[in-house]
């Protein structure tokens, strides 16, 4: 029998939904709650590398992800000049294995929908607009009261509730989440025919200007700038800022700018980061995903790390008979150093850009590929 029979997952994002799928399809009763009122996701688009696709394959949704998204196998580097000159075309490492695409770009809401629909199809119960009010744990389980007045008792609570995790705070864990000094503008819209992969522009008024195809008819573009307080800008003002930044980049950006006319499709956030020291559990409550480790998207590994957390945690819970320190030690050994390396490397790449330093990016990318090509 699995080490657990009833699990509460707090948070219906990538980490939480994947955990629910893995556990429910192995006969575990899973309740998922989320403070949001529906399956939504901010940020417009997402870049999913091979190690994320490997987990989607294990979840049984890889075909849906590929159908909803846009697979590709290379990366372009372009100059911030008047022509957007293509400097190099680089094959992406197939970190999920030779039979999977190197990368799939997709819209975040599509990824959220696919994961939640899969969780419900294998028996997980998902409740939106619901939060935990309190939880109290003992040696054998966790008693939870919910914001709607209901209660439940679980063998385990999984805190997958994001970078500002309620679960983490309720456990009394103090963790410094810091901004890295960068902010990112994201916008999504129709895909020009010329955009068939991610291209990156370094230099100009932005640290990075890039874009990613997310479907046959969609793409998202992004511009990374020094972290700036943009909270006072009205939507139309935000649109003007991103238009002005984008005007310095050419090539496919000239086509992208034509579609920059809908302020509701613009999103601006700061890069933030933290890593919780091991262990990530306190008794029968465990933190995964951004609740435990958050990295800026400079290496496009945030969702992949969250999905890997879910895969490893569920594997251990369903292949072990006891929820004991041995299980938690194995979870720590398989997740902590790997996730921390990715966070540190993501921050290092950003810091090189902030400092104007020519860091050894090829070596860092090679190390990343070697690390994540091995299953978690």
Could you walk me through the main structural features you see in this protein, from its secondary elements to its overall organization?
- With 376 residues, this protein is an alpha+beta fold.
- It has ten helices and 20 strands.
- It has an eight-stranded mixed beta sheet with strand order 6-5-14-15-16-13-17-20. The protein has a six-stranded mixed beta sheet with strand order 8-2-1-12-19-18.
- A hairpin with a 7-residue loop joins strand 5 (74-78) and strand 6.
- The longest helix is centred in the last third of the chain and has 31 residues, at 325-355.
| Unreliable segments of 5+ consecutive residues | none
Judged by helices, strands and strand pairing, the structural class is: alpha+beta
Major sheet characteristics: 8 strands, mixed
Summarize the helix and strand pattern as letters: EHEEHHEEEEHEEEEEHEEEEHHEEEEHHH
Corresponding CATH architecture of the largest domain: 3-Layer(bba) Sandwich
Assigned CATH class of the largest domain: Alpha Beta
CATH superfamily of the largest domain: FAD/NAD(P)-binding domain
Helix content: 25-40%
Total individual domains: 2
How much of the residues is beta strand, in percent?
A: 25-35%
Radius of gyration: 21 Å
User: How are the strands of the largest sheet arranged?
Assistant: 6-5-14-15-16-13-17-20
**C-alpha end-to-end distance:** 23 Å
Average pLDDT across residues?
96
């Amino acid at each position: 029998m699995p080490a657990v029979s009833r699990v509460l997952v707090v948070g219906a994002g990538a980490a939480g939904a994947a955990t629910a799928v893995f556990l429910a399809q192995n006969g575990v009763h899973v309740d998922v709650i989320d403070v949001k009122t529906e399956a939504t996701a901010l940020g417009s688009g997402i870049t999913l590398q091979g190690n994320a696709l490997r987990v989607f394959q294990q979840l049984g949704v890889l075909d849906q992800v590929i159908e909803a998204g846009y697979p590709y196998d290379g990366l372009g580097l372009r100059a911030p000049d008047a022509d957007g000159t293509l400097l190099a075309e680089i094959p992406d490492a197939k970190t999920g294995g030779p039979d999977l695409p190197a990368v799939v770009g997709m819209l975040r809401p599509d990824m959220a929908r696919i994961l939640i629909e899969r969780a419900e199809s294998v028996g997980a119960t998902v409740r939106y607009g619901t939060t935990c009010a309190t939880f109290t744990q003992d040696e054998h389980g966790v008693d939870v009261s919910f914001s709607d007045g209901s209660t439940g008792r679980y063998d385990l609570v999984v805190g997958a509730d994001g970078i500002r995790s309620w679960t983490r705070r309720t456990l009394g864990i103090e963790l410094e989440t810091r901004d890295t000094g960068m902010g990112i503008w994201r916008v999504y819209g129709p895909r020009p025919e010329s955009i068939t992969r991610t291209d990156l522009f370094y230099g100009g008024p932005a640290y990075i200007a890039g874009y990613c195809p997310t479907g046959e008819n969609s793409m998202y573009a992004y511009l990374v700038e020094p972290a700036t307080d943009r909270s006072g800008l009205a939507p139309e003002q935000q649109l003007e800022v991103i238009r002005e930044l984008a005007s310095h980049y050419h090539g496919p950006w000239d086509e992208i700018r034509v579609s920059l006319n809908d302020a509701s499709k613009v999103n601006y956030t700061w890069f933030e980061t933290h890593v919780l020291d091991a262990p990530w559990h306190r008794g029968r409550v465990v933190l995964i995903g951004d609740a435990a480790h958050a990295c800026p998207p400079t290496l496009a590994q945030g969702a992949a790390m969250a999905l890997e957390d879910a895969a490893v945690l569920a594997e251990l819970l369903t292949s072990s008979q006891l929820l004991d320190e041995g299980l938690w030690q194995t979870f720590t050994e398989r997740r902590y150093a790997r996730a921390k390396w990715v966070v540190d490397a993501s921050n290092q790449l950003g810091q090189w850009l902030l400092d104007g330093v020519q860091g050894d990016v090829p070596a860092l990318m090679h190390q990343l590929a070697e690390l994540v090509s091995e299953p978690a």
